[in-house]
Specification:
4-stranded mixed sheet; 5-stranded mixed sheet; 14 strands; 2 domains; alpha+beta; about 250 residues; 2 helices
Length: about 250
């Protein structure tokens, strides 16, 4: 009888251990899923933090921006990244992303996209009318997370533009080294309904961090405009997207 009881106890213990291992394995798999925006510390950028950072006057390919708190943990790497993956990279703050997978340098760490590890360019688009495409290319050695949407400042504007809230993706866009993310910009209303219109050749862009503000993301970056752009109160920007088509949908 004692032998039978011992065998049953051993079998129960083995089954419990197997269940624990399976549970841990499932948890590990779930942690690799792209992190949804709702899982971030701030589900949406706080209105009190919607102030563009000071313009550095530097182009996006210069590493002049002050490092992010988690960016300071970016060790030198040599990989080039590439391809897409559903694996969620993590940085020192537990940041995760969707889209482009790991950094390609043998590390799964990511940093926040800033003017110090990216290059920005903007292009006028024929359709939709009065739209431009903002492109952010990762020039760093690690994958970076493009949080929320860019802060745009055309000319001497003092406020952050409106946002296409419908463009908010399910998860944070992560950009591998050498790859790009995109944001669509509607500069003015096609039907002329916008107000306070003006023309400018000056554009500066600031970045958001995981908490939805520009703290520790460095100075804003000056982005060259090929010609004067007309802007009015209808100025609206999309969230960062993985594809040009998605960025220009709104």
């Amino acid at each position: 009888m004692r032998t039978l009881t011992f065998r049953r106890a051993a079998r129960t213990s083995a089954l419990g251990a197997a269940a624990l291992i399976a549970s841990l394995s499932l948890t590990a798999c779930q942690s690799d899923d792209p992190e949804p925006y709702d899982a971030l510390a701030s589900a949406s950028p706080s209105s009190s933090a919607r102030t563009p950072a000071k313009d550095s006057g530097a182009s996006g390919d210069q590493d002049t921006a002050a490092p992010d708190a988690d960016q300071g943990k970016d060790a030198a790497g040599s990989g080039s990244g590439g391809g897409t993956s559903a694996t969620k990279p993590k940085d020192g703050n537990g940041d995760g992303g969707s889209g482009n997978g790991g950094s390609g340098d043998g590390s799964t760490a990511t940093v926040t996209c800033t003017g110090g590890n990216t290059k920005l360019s903007i292009t006028e688009i024929s359709r939709p009318v009065n739209h431009m495409l903002l492109t952010m290319t990762n020039t760093g050695s690690k994958a970076c997370n493009a949080y929320y949407y860019p802060y745009l400042k055309f000319g001497e504007a003092q406020s952050v533009p409106n946002t296409f809230e419908d463009s908010k993706p399910q998860a944070v866009v992560t950009i591998n080294p050498g790859e790009s993310a995109y944001a669509g910009v509607m500069t003015s209303a096609a039907d002329g309904s916008g107000s306070n219109g003006y023309s400018t050749k000056d554009l500066s862009v600031s970045f958001q961090n995981r908490d939805g503000n520009s703290d520790n993301t460095g100075s804003s970056v000056s982005v060259p405009l090929s010609k004067s752009v007309h802007v009015d109160s209808s100025l609206t920007v999309s969230y960062w997207q993985m594809s040009m088509d998605d960025a220009l949908t709104y």
